Protein backbone atom coordinates (compact mmCIF):
# COMPACT_ATOMS: atom_id res chain seq x y z
CA UNK A 1 0.00 0.00 0.00
CA UNK A 2 1.49 3.33 -1.06
CA UNK A 3 0.90 6.56 0.74
CA UNK A 4 0.24 9.50 -1.58
CA UNK A 5 2.52 12.48 -1.12
CA UNK A 6 0.95 15.92 -0.87
CA UNK A 7 2.08 18.18 -3.78
CA UNK A 8 3.69 20.52 -1.23
CA UNK A 9 6.01 17.70 -0.07
CA UNK A 10 6.70 16.24 -3.51
CA UNK A 11 10.40 16.05 -4.43
CA UNK A 12 10.72 16.75 -8.16
CA UNK A 13 13.52 15.42 -10.41
CA UNK A 14 16.77 17.33 -9.76
CA UNK A 15 17.06 19.12 -13.16
CA UNK A 16 13.48 20.40 -12.92
CA UNK A 17 13.93 21.26 -9.24
CA UNK A 18 16.99 23.39 -9.97
CA UNK A 19 15.37 25.11 -12.98
CA UNK A 20 12.23 25.99 -11.02
CA UNK A 21 14.31 27.07 -8.01
CA UNK A 22 16.40 29.34 -10.24
CA UNK A 23 13.20 30.85 -11.60
CA UNK A 24 12.16 31.79 -8.05
CA UNK A 25 15.60 33.34 -7.49
CA UNK A 26 15.37 35.37 -10.71
CA UNK A 27 11.91 36.65 -9.80
CA UNK A 28 13.08 37.95 -6.42
CA UNK A 29 16.71 38.85 -7.20
CA UNK A 30 16.23 42.51 -8.08
CA UNK A 31 14.10 43.09 -4.97
CA UNK A 32 16.49 41.09 -2.81
CA UNK A 33 19.54 43.23 -3.62
CA UNK A 34 17.68 46.57 -3.65
CA UNK A 35 17.58 47.08 0.13
CA UNK A 36 21.31 46.60 0.85
CA UNK A 37 22.04 48.93 -2.09
CA UNK A 38 19.69 51.59 -0.68
CA UNK A 39 21.01 51.36 2.88
CA UNK A 40 24.68 50.97 1.91
CA UNK A 41 24.61 54.04 -0.31
CA UNK A 42 22.58 56.05 2.24
CA UNK A 43 25.35 55.31 4.77
CA UNK A 44 27.95 56.32 2.14
CA UNK A 45 29.78 53.03 2.62
CA UNK A 46 32.73 52.28 0.30
CA UNK A 47 31.89 50.04 -2.71
CA UNK A 48 33.52 46.94 -1.17
CA UNK A 49 31.32 47.28 1.93
CA UNK A 50 28.18 47.72 -0.17
CA UNK A 51 29.20 44.61 -2.12
CA UNK A 52 29.61 42.75 1.17
CA UNK A 53 26.10 43.87 2.25
CA UNK A 54 24.74 42.34 -0.96
CA UNK A 55 26.61 39.06 -0.35
CA UNK A 56 25.40 38.97 3.25
CA UNK A 57 21.83 39.65 2.13
CA UNK A 58 21.86 36.86 -0.47
CA UNK A 59 23.38 34.45 2.07
CA UNK A 60 20.82 35.34 4.75
CA UNK A 61 17.99 35.16 2.16
CA UNK A 62 18.97 31.57 1.49
CA UNK A 63 19.34 30.75 5.18
CA UNK A 64 15.95 32.23 6.12
CA UNK A 65 14.27 30.46 3.17
CA UNK A 66 15.67 27.09 4.23
CA UNK A 67 14.49 27.64 7.82
CA UNK A 68 10.99 28.53 6.59
CA UNK A 69 10.62 25.73 4.00
CA UNK A 70 12.49 22.79 5.57
CA UNK A 71 11.07 23.55 8.99
CA UNK A 72 12.44 22.77 12.43
CA UNK A 73 10.65 22.02 15.70
CA UNK A 74 8.31 24.98 16.28
CA UNK A 75 9.75 26.98 13.37
CA UNK A 76 8.88 27.07 9.66
CA UNK A 77 5.55 26.81 7.84
CA UNK A 78 6.85 24.23 5.31
CA UNK A 79 5.19 25.83 2.31
CA UNK A 80 6.83 27.12 -0.93
CA UNK A 81 8.04 30.48 0.41
CA UNK A 82 11.07 32.58 -0.58
CA UNK A 83 12.30 34.94 2.12
CA UNK A 84 13.74 38.38 1.40
CA UNK A 85 14.39 41.72 3.09
CA UNK A 86 11.15 43.63 3.54
CA UNK A 87 10.80 47.07 1.99
CA UNK A 88 8.71 48.09 5.00
CA UNK A 89 11.94 48.42 7.00
CA UNK A 90 13.68 50.73 4.52
CA UNK A 91 12.10 54.03 5.67
CA UNK A 92 12.92 53.54 9.38
CA UNK A 93 16.42 52.28 8.55
CA UNK A 94 17.10 55.33 6.36
CA UNK A 95 16.15 57.52 9.34
CA UNK A 96 18.50 55.52 11.56
CA UNK A 97 21.26 55.75 8.95
CA UNK A 98 20.91 59.54 8.96
CA UNK A 99 21.38 59.69 12.76
CA UNK A 100 25.13 59.84 13.54
CA UNK A 101 24.70 58.18 16.95
CA UNK A 102 22.87 55.17 15.46
CA UNK A 103 24.31 54.26 12.06
CA UNK A 104 24.79 50.74 10.73
CA UNK A 105 25.60 49.10 14.09
CA UNK A 106 22.50 50.68 15.63
CA UNK A 107 20.44 49.31 12.73
CA UNK A 108 21.80 45.80 13.36
CA UNK A 109 21.01 46.08 17.07
CA UNK A 110 17.42 47.03 16.31
CA UNK A 111 17.12 44.19 13.75
CA UNK A 112 18.38 41.58 16.24
CA UNK A 113 16.02 42.90 18.93
CA UNK A 114 13.10 42.90 16.46
CA UNK A 115 13.90 39.31 15.51
CA UNK A 116 13.79 38.19 19.15
CA UNK A 117 10.59 40.19 19.59
CA UNK A 118 9.08 38.47 16.54
CA UNK A 119 9.96 35.01 17.87
CA UNK A 120 8.27 35.82 21.20
CA UNK A 121 5.09 37.41 19.82
CA UNK A 122 4.51 34.96 16.92
CA UNK A 123 1.73 33.07 18.79
CA UNK A 124 -0.13 36.32 19.49
CA UNK A 125 0.08 38.00 16.07
CA UNK A 126 -3.03 36.32 14.69
CA UNK A 127 -4.96 37.98 17.52
CA UNK A 128 -3.78 41.38 16.24
CA UNK A 129 -5.09 40.62 12.75
CA UNK A 130 -8.47 42.33 13.42
CA UNK A 131 -6.57 45.62 13.83
CA UNK A 132 -5.32 45.36 10.23
CA UNK A 133 -8.29 45.07 7.82
CA UNK A 134 -7.76 45.90 4.11
CA UNK A 135 -8.33 49.64 4.67
CA UNK A 136 -5.32 49.67 7.03
CA UNK A 137 -2.98 47.26 5.21
CA UNK A 138 -3.74 48.78 1.80
CA UNK A 139 -3.01 52.29 3.07
CA UNK A 140 0.25 51.22 4.74
CA UNK A 141 1.53 49.38 1.66
CA UNK A 142 0.60 52.31 -0.59
CA UNK A 143 2.53 54.74 1.63
CA UNK A 144 5.51 52.34 1.65
CA UNK A 145 5.58 52.52 -2.16
CA UNK A 146 5.14 56.30 -2.25
CA UNK A 147 7.92 56.77 0.33
CA UNK A 148 10.30 54.55 -1.62
CA UNK A 149 9.59 56.38 -4.89
CA UNK A 150 11.83 59.18 -3.61
CA UNK A 151 14.73 56.70 -3.63
CA UNK A 152 13.91 55.49 -7.15
CA UNK A 153 13.60 59.05 -8.51
CA UNK A 154 16.94 60.11 -7.01
CA UNK A 155 18.56 56.97 -8.42
CA UNK A 156 17.22 57.88 -11.87
CA UNK A 157 18.62 61.39 -11.39
CA UNK A 158 22.09 60.06 -10.57
CA UNK A 159 22.16 60.18 -6.76
CA UNK A 160 21.12 62.89 -4.33
CA UNK A 161 20.75 66.42 -5.74
CA UNK A 162 22.94 67.74 -2.89
CA UNK A 163 25.83 66.13 -1.06
CA UNK A 164 27.61 67.00 2.18
CA UNK A 165 31.39 67.22 2.55
CA UNK A 166 33.23 67.90 5.81
CA UNK A 167 35.92 70.58 5.45
CA UNK A 168 38.06 71.42 8.49
CA UNK A 169 35.55 69.67 10.71
CA UNK A 170 32.62 71.70 9.34
CA UNK A 171 29.97 70.09 7.09
CA UNK A 172 29.34 71.94 3.81
CA UNK A 173 26.55 71.21 1.31
CA UNK A 174 27.24 71.27 -2.42
CA UNK A 175 25.07 70.56 -5.49
CA UNK A 176 25.70 67.23 -7.19
CA UNK A 177 26.98 68.07 -10.71
CA UNK A 178 26.03 64.60 -12.00
CA UNK A 179 22.39 64.97 -10.93
CA UNK A 180 19.83 65.22 -13.74
CA UNK A 181 22.36 64.88 -16.60
CA UNK A 182 20.80 63.92 -19.94
CA UNK A 183 22.95 60.81 -20.38
CA UNK A 184 21.91 59.43 -16.98
CA UNK A 185 18.25 60.25 -17.56
CA UNK A 186 18.45 58.56 -20.96
CA UNK A 187 19.87 55.36 -19.44
CA UNK A 188 17.14 55.32 -16.76
CA UNK A 189 14.49 55.83 -19.45
CA UNK A 190 16.01 53.03 -21.56
CA UNK A 191 15.79 50.61 -18.60
CA UNK A 192 12.17 51.62 -18.00
CA UNK A 193 11.27 51.11 -21.69
CA UNK A 194 12.93 47.66 -21.75
CA UNK A 195 10.99 46.58 -18.67
CA UNK A 196 7.68 47.84 -20.08
CA UNK A 197 8.36 46.13 -23.44
CA UNK A 198 9.09 42.80 -21.71
CA UNK A 199 5.94 43.11 -19.62
CA UNK A 200 3.85 43.75 -22.74
CA UNK A 201 5.41 41.36 -25.25
CA UNK A 202 7.37 38.87 -23.14
CA UNK A 203 6.13 35.40 -22.22
CA UNK A 204 5.05 34.60 -18.65
CA UNK A 205 8.58 33.86 -17.47
CA UNK A 206 10.20 36.81 -19.30
CA UNK A 207 7.50 39.07 -17.91
CA UNK A 208 8.22 37.84 -14.38
CA UNK A 209 11.94 38.63 -14.65
CA UNK A 210 11.45 41.85 -16.65
CA UNK A 211 12.97 44.03 -13.92
CA UNK A 212 16.13 41.92 -13.73
CA UNK A 213 16.47 41.81 -17.54
CA UNK A 214 15.89 45.57 -17.70
CA UNK A 215 18.72 46.13 -15.21
CA UNK A 216 21.01 43.83 -17.23
CA UNK A 217 20.16 45.70 -20.47
CA UNK A 218 20.79 49.03 -18.74
CA UNK A 219 24.11 47.78 -17.35
CA UNK A 220 25.22 46.73 -20.84
CA UNK A 221 24.33 50.16 -22.23
CA UNK A 222 26.05 51.91 -19.31
CA UNK A 223 29.23 49.89 -19.85
CA UNK A 224 29.21 50.71 -23.59
CA UNK A 225 28.86 54.41 -22.73
CA UNK A 226 31.70 54.16 -20.20
CA UNK A 227 29.47 54.86 -17.20
CA UNK A 228 29.82 51.42 -15.60
CA UNK A 229 33.26 50.28 -14.41
CA UNK A 230 34.42 46.80 -13.39
CA UNK A 231 37.54 47.57 -11.34
CA UNK A 232 35.99 46.30 -8.10
CA UNK A 233 34.74 43.14 -9.82
CA UNK A 234 38.26 42.32 -10.95
CA UNK A 235 39.75 42.72 -7.47
CA UNK A 236 36.93 40.88 -5.64
CA UNK A 237 37.55 37.28 -4.61
CA UNK A 238 35.78 34.33 -6.16
CA UNK A 239 34.67 32.75 -2.90
CA UNK A 240 34.38 34.17 0.61
CA UNK A 241 32.56 33.34 3.82
CA UNK A 242 29.96 35.69 5.32
CA UNK A 243 31.02 35.99 8.96
CA UNK A 244 28.74 37.30 11.74
CA UNK A 245 29.26 40.87 12.99
CA UNK A 246 31.51 41.81 10.07
CA UNK A 247 31.17 45.54 10.83
CA UNK A 248 31.53 45.17 14.63
CA UNK A 249 29.29 44.38 17.56
CA UNK A 250 25.73 45.73 17.22
CA UNK A 251 24.58 48.65 19.32
CA UNK A 252 21.20 48.78 21.02
CA UNK A 253 19.20 52.02 21.24
CA UNK A 254 15.69 52.09 22.68
CA UNK A 255 13.77 54.13 20.10
CA UNK A 256 15.25 52.35 17.04
CA UNK A 257 14.44 49.02 18.70
CA UNK A 258 10.83 50.08 19.37
CA UNK A 259 10.58 51.40 15.81
CA UNK A 260 11.85 48.15 14.29
CA UNK A 261 9.57 46.08 16.53
CA UNK A 262 6.57 48.02 15.19
CA UNK A 263 7.83 47.33 11.67
CA UNK A 264 8.08 43.65 12.65
CA UNK A 265 4.42 43.59 13.67
CA UNK A 266 3.35 45.14 10.35
CA UNK A 267 5.58 42.71 8.42
CA UNK A 268 4.21 39.70 10.31
CA UNK A 269 0.63 40.79 9.68
CA UNK A 270 1.48 40.96 5.97
CA UNK A 271 3.12 37.50 6.18
CA UNK A 272 0.01 36.15 7.87
CA UNK A 273 -2.07 37.10 4.86
CA UNK A 274 0.52 35.61 2.49
CA UNK A 275 0.52 32.30 4.38
CA UNK A 276 -3.28 32.10 4.30
CA UNK A 277 -3.31 32.81 0.56
CA UNK A 278 -0.55 30.25 -0.02
CA UNK A 279 -2.54 27.66 1.93
CA UNK A 280 -5.44 28.23 -0.48
CA UNK A 281 -3.15 27.99 -3.54
CA UNK A 282 -1.45 24.77 -2.41
CA UNK A 283 -4.57 23.14 -0.95
CA UNK A 284 -2.88 22.64 2.41
CA UNK A 285 -4.70 23.58 5.61
CA UNK A 286 -3.01 26.42 7.45
CA UNK A 287 -4.12 26.35 11.08
CA UNK A 288 -3.08 28.59 13.96
CA UNK A 289 -0.15 26.30 14.84
CA UNK A 290 1.18 26.45 11.28
CA UNK A 291 0.78 30.25 11.23
CA UNK A 292 2.71 30.52 14.49
CA UNK A 293 5.56 28.42 13.06
CA UNK A 294 5.66 30.52 9.89
CA UNK A 295 5.65 33.82 11.77
CA UNK A 296 8.28 32.51 14.18
CA UNK A 297 10.46 31.76 11.14
CA UNK A 298 10.09 35.43 10.15
CA UNK A 299 11.47 36.31 13.58
CA UNK A 300 14.29 33.76 13.31
CA UNK A 301 15.16 35.02 9.81
CA UNK A 302 15.28 38.61 11.06
CA UNK A 303 17.41 37.60 14.06
CA UNK A 304 19.83 35.77 11.74
CA UNK A 305 19.79 38.79 9.44
CA UNK A 306 21.02 41.06 12.24
CA UNK A 307 23.78 38.60 13.11
CA UNK A 308 24.89 38.10 9.48
CA UNK A 309 25.05 41.85 8.70
CA UNK A 310 21.70 42.31 6.99
CA UNK A 311 18.08 43.30 7.66
CA UNK A 312 14.49 42.12 8.55
CA UNK A 313 13.06 39.23 6.50
CA UNK A 314 9.61 38.30 5.29
CA UNK A 315 8.01 36.15 2.58
CA UNK A 316 8.27 37.77 -0.87
CA UNK A 317 4.84 38.33 -2.41
CA UNK A 318 6.09 38.04 -6.00
CA UNK A 319 7.22 34.48 -5.27
CA UNK A 320 3.86 33.64 -3.71
CA UNK A 321 2.33 34.96 -6.93
CA UNK A 322 4.68 32.77 -8.95
CA UNK A 323 3.31 29.69 -7.18
CA UNK A 324 -0.16 30.67 -8.37
CA UNK A 325 1.05 31.34 -11.92
CA UNK A 326 3.07 28.13 -12.38
CA UNK A 327 0.87 25.81 -10.32
CA UNK A 328 4.03 24.16 -8.90
CA UNK A 329 3.29 23.64 -5.20
CA UNK A 330 6.39 21.75 -4.01
CA UNK A 331 8.27 23.41 -1.15
CA UNK A 332 11.40 21.61 -2.38
CA UNK A 333 11.46 24.05 -5.30
CA UNK A 334 11.91 26.99 -2.93
CA UNK A 335 14.34 24.93 -0.86
CA UNK A 336 16.40 24.62 -4.06
CA UNK A 337 15.98 28.38 -4.56
CA UNK A 338 17.19 29.00 -1.01
CA UNK A 339 20.24 26.84 -1.67
CA UNK A 340 21.03 28.84 -4.83
CA UNK A 341 20.75 32.12 -2.87
CA UNK A 342 23.08 30.70 -0.21
CA UNK A 343 25.71 29.86 -2.84
CA UNK A 344 25.39 33.28 -4.51
CA UNK A 345 26.06 34.89 -1.14
CA UNK A 346 29.44 33.15 -1.04
CA UNK A 347 30.54 34.60 -4.40
CA UNK A 348 31.95 38.14 -3.83
CA UNK A 349 32.43 38.75 -7.56
CA UNK A 350 28.67 38.47 -8.05
CA UNK A 351 28.04 41.03 -5.28
CA UNK A 352 30.73 43.36 -6.65
CA UNK A 353 29.13 43.15 -10.10
CA UNK A 354 25.74 44.13 -8.68
CA UNK A 355 27.31 46.99 -6.67
CA UNK A 356 29.01 48.35 -9.79
CA UNK A 357 25.67 48.90 -11.55
CA UNK A 358 25.22 52.71 -11.81
CA UNK A 359 22.43 54.36 -9.85
CA UNK A 360 20.78 55.63 -13.02
CA UNK A 361 20.29 52.02 -14.19
CA UNK A 362 18.73 51.10 -10.85
CA UNK A 363 16.59 54.24 -11.08
CA UNK A 364 14.74 53.05 -14.16
CA UNK A 365 14.00 49.75 -12.40
CA UNK A 366 13.26 51.46 -9.08
CA UNK A 367 10.43 53.46 -10.62
CA UNK A 368 8.80 50.15 -11.55
CA UNK A 369 9.61 48.22 -8.34
CA UNK A 370 8.60 50.92 -5.90
CA UNK A 371 5.68 52.09 -7.99
CA UNK A 372 4.34 48.52 -8.00
CA UNK A 373 4.47 48.48 -4.20
CA UNK A 374 2.25 51.57 -4.15
CA UNK A 375 -0.01 50.07 -6.82
CA UNK A 376 -0.38 46.89 -4.75
CA UNK A 377 -1.61 49.01 -1.85
CA UNK A 378 -4.07 50.74 -4.17
CA UNK A 379 -5.29 47.38 -5.45
CA UNK A 380 -5.89 46.18 -1.87
CA UNK A 381 -7.92 49.32 -1.24
CA UNK A 382 -10.25 48.38 -4.10
CA UNK A 383 -11.64 45.68 -1.77
CA UNK A 384 -12.63 48.36 0.76
CA UNK A 385 -16.22 49.59 0.97
CA UNK A 386 -15.99 53.34 0.35
CA UNK A 387 -19.49 53.74 -1.08
CA UNK A 388 -21.63 52.83 1.91
CA UNK A 389 -18.97 53.55 4.55
CA UNK A 390 -17.45 56.92 3.75
CA UNK A 391 -15.56 56.90 7.06
CA UNK A 392 -13.06 54.62 5.34
CA UNK A 393 -12.17 57.59 3.12
CA UNK A 394 -11.09 59.54 6.21
CA UNK A 395 -8.98 56.60 7.45
CA UNK A 396 -7.07 56.55 4.15
CA UNK A 397 -6.89 60.32 3.67
CA UNK A 398 -5.60 61.23 7.12
CA UNK A 399 -3.23 58.24 7.35
CA UNK A 400 -1.66 59.09 3.98
CA UNK A 401 -1.38 62.71 5.12
CA UNK A 402 0.55 61.72 8.24
CA UNK A 403 2.68 59.34 6.18
CA UNK A 404 3.69 62.19 3.87
CA UNK A 405 4.89 64.52 6.67
CA UNK A 406 8.52 63.27 6.83
CA UNK A 407 8.65 63.07 3.02
CA UNK A 408 7.38 66.61 2.39
CA UNK A 409 8.73 68.39 5.48
CA UNK A 410 11.68 66.58 7.13
CA UNK A 411 11.96 69.25 9.87
CA UNK A 412 8.28 69.12 10.85
CA UNK A 413 9.01 67.41 14.19
CA UNK A 414 12.35 69.10 14.93
CA UNK A 415 11.06 70.66 18.18
CA UNK A 416 10.15 67.27 19.66
CA UNK A 417 12.64 65.18 21.73
CA UNK A 418 15.59 63.93 19.67
CA UNK A 419 15.13 60.32 20.79
CA UNK A 420 11.72 60.23 19.07
CA UNK A 421 13.06 61.32 15.68
CA UNK A 422 13.75 57.82 14.26
CA UNK A 423 10.06 57.04 14.95
CA UNK A 424 8.61 60.37 13.79
CA UNK A 425 10.79 60.55 10.69
CA UNK A 426 9.32 57.31 9.34
CA UNK A 427 6.22 58.12 7.33
CA UNK A 428 5.43 54.41 7.12
CA UNK A 429 5.20 53.99 10.88
CA UNK A 430 3.24 57.23 11.31
CA UNK A 431 0.82 56.03 8.66
CA UNK A 432 0.49 52.60 10.31
CA UNK A 433 -0.22 54.00 13.78
CA UNK A 434 -2.74 56.57 12.54
CA UNK A 435 -4.50 54.05 10.26
CA UNK A 436 -4.90 51.50 13.08
CA UNK A 437 -6.19 54.13 15.53
CA UNK A 438 -8.61 55.77 13.06
CA UNK A 439 -9.98 52.45 11.81
CA UNK A 440 -10.63 51.29 15.37
CA UNK A 441 -12.26 54.65 16.14
CA UNK A 442 -14.53 54.74 13.08
CA UNK A 443 -15.16 51.06 12.37
CA UNK A 444 -14.37 49.20 15.58
CA UNK A 445 -12.51 45.87 15.51
CA UNK A 446 -13.79 42.93 13.45
CA UNK A 447 -13.84 39.32 14.63
CA UNK A 448 -10.76 37.12 14.23
CA UNK A 449 -12.45 34.87 11.65
CA UNK A 450 -13.61 37.83 9.56
CA UNK A 451 -10.12 39.33 9.73
CA UNK A 452 -8.53 36.03 8.70
CA UNK A 453 -10.82 35.73 5.67
CA UNK A 454 -10.08 39.34 4.69
CA UNK A 455 -6.33 38.78 5.04
CA UNK A 456 -6.39 35.71 2.79
CA UNK A 457 -8.46 37.57 0.19
CA UNK A 458 -6.17 40.61 0.27
CA UNK A 459 -3.01 38.51 -0.04
CA UNK A 460 -4.46 36.53 -2.93
CA UNK A 461 -5.37 39.77 -4.72
CA UNK A 462 -1.94 41.29 -4.06
CA UNK A 463 -0.05 38.32 -5.52
CA UNK A 464 -1.96 37.94 -8.79
Q: What key attributes describe this structure?
A:
4 strands; mainly alpha; globular; 464 residues; 68% helix; two-stranded antiparallel ribbon; two-stranded antiparallel sheet
Describe this structure in words.
The chain has 464 residues and is mostly helical. It has one domain (10-161, 173-462). It contains 19 helices and four strands. The protein has helices at residues 14-42, 47-70, 90-98, 103-128, 134-157, 182-201, 204-208, 210-224, 231-235, 254-282, 288-307, 317-326, 331-344, 348-355, 359-381, 391-408, 421-424, 427-443, 448-462; strands spanning 83-85, 162-167, 170-175, 313-315. Strands 1-4 form a two-stranded antiparallel ribbon. Strand 2 and strand 3 form a beta hairpin. Helix 3 (90-98) packs antiparallel against helix 4 (103-128) and helix 5 (134-157) packs antiparallel against helix 15. The model has no long low-confidence stretch (mean pLDDT 78).
Please sum up the structure shown:
This protein has 464 residues and is mainly alpha-helical.
Shape: globular
Radius of gyration: 21 Å
Q: How far is the first residue's CA from the last residue's CA?
A: 39 Å
* Secondary-structure element series: HHEHHHEEHHHHHHEHHHHHHHH
Report the count of strand segments: 4
| Helix content class | 55-70%
Beta-strand content estimate: under 5%
Tally of separate domains: 1
Structural class call reads: mainly alpha
Number of helices: 19
Largest sheet, strands/sense/barrel: 2 strands, antiparallel
Low-confidence region ranges: none
Strand order of the largest sheet: 1-4
Mean pLDDT: 78
